[in-house]
Amino acid sequence: MKTIKGPAIFLAQFIGDKAPYNSLDGLCKWAKEMGFDGVQLPTSDAWLIDLELASTSKDYCDELKGKVAAHGLEITELSTHLQGQLVAVNPAYDIMFDGFAPPAVRNNPSARADWATNQVIKAGKASANLGLKVHVSFSGALAWPYMYPWPPRPDGLIDEAFKALAEKWMPILNAHDEVGVDVCYELHPGEDLHDGLTFERFLAATGNHNRVHINYDPSHFVLQQLDYLAFIDFYHQHIKMFHVKDAEFNPSGKSGVYGSYAEWIDRPGRFRSLGDGEIDFGQIFSKLSQYGFDGWAVLEWECCIKDGDQGAREGSEFIRDHIIQVTERSFDDFAGGDHDPAMNRKILGL
Q1: Overall average pLDDT of the 206-225 stretch
Q2: What are φ and ψ of residue 40, in 5° steps?
Q3: CB distance 54 to 64 below 8 Å
Q4: What are the residues whose beta carbons fall under 8 Å from the beta carbon of 121, sequence distance 6 or more?
Q5: How confident is the model at residue 336 (pLDDT cuts 50, 70, 90)?
Q6: Would you say 196 and 235 are in contact if contact means Cβ atoms under 8 Å apart?
Q7: Longest dimension (CA), the chain
């Protein structure tokens, strides 16, 4: 067993136009004041991390780590959620996702996908230059519009979608393999990889690529009504990252899993600040510790009710209180004896 590291915080939801949320120094100072030991960096803002430079310059990465360390923090991982989303986009979502890309590649799905692929490859190289072994992304989606089996899907449609998705990701996965960095997919509704079986389908489509892994976020499983604890038993060998995010599911006689096109605050399934939802994090931290997960416990704050600063401050304490310092010896060692084969045989009557 190993002890989970933390608490850390994913900065994406806290970036803003005003201090302290509009600079790396400001965000790091704020994160330390909130009680965190690490920060997970999104890579879509060059003022936070210059991905182009980070992918080519070890000196820049050392300087960046130094700036963060000056605040008593570590960089835990890099995120390419927005870029990964654009690696594979069904035409139904072209207009909505164009805003995630720079103006030069908008209204050009092929150029946009090439840009996104290069971005995620650079994030792998930047991670290696920072001394990181994992990075988190979204898979993108070709098949998501056909998630519900009505109208009936043409035979082979989903197989073809996952084959194409794997083909789009193979250059990225191979590039990550060259620098020794795992890609941890956040299994998320709206992505083709959104639960255990879709992860398995993608893993098989990539030929069981050794860099295909999981960012475990139980909040997305609550909204799908998936057993988030059993998931750890099934996939613990692939869980290399951990987003600590709470959620709740309150179905009614009027609305359920699909949410009725309602805004977040009115949906039966909604994200909450840590401790305000229904997720059993005591069991989650126990299972991850049991299986030897030694990555970072990273707060991802998304709540439609509570203020972000309050959620962050409470979240750091929540995570710290849940981290288990794993034991280095068995509690009943005092009652044991030395290994004695002859005595063991005698006890067994042999």
Answers
A1: 98
A2: -100, 125
A3: yes
A4: 55, 171, 172, 175, 176
A5: low
A6: yes
A7: 80
Count CA atoms closer than 13 A to 75's CA, side-chain side: 28
Structure tokens at 313: 């401050």
Q: What is the pTM of this model?
A: 0.95
φ, ψ dihedrals at 123, nearest 5°: -65, -35
CATH of the domain at 177: 3.20.20.150
Tokens encoding 189:
């509704």
SS3 call for 229: helix
Burial of 68 (0-12, 13-18, 19+ CB in 10 A): buried
From the CA atom positions of the chain, what is the Rg in Å?
A: 22
Structure tokens that stand for 136 in this block = 């988190």
287: nearest Cα among 246, 231, 212, 327: 231
Total of domains in the chain = 1
Q: What secondary structure letter does DSSP report for 332?
A: T
The reported pLDDT for the residue numbered 178 is 98
In the 8-state DSSP scheme, what is residue 333? G
How far is Cα 241 from Cα 10, in angstroms, rounded to an integer? 12
Question: Which structural domain, as residue segments, surrounds residue 36?
Answer: 5-347
**How far is residue 136's CA from residue 50's CA, in Å, rounded to a whole number?**
17
Look-up of token digits 């806290």: 14
- How far apart CA 178 and CA 108 sit, in angstroms, is 30
The mean of the pLDDT values for the chain is: 96
Q: Which two tokens stand for residue 188?
A: 């998320």
Block residue for tokens 């990555």: 295
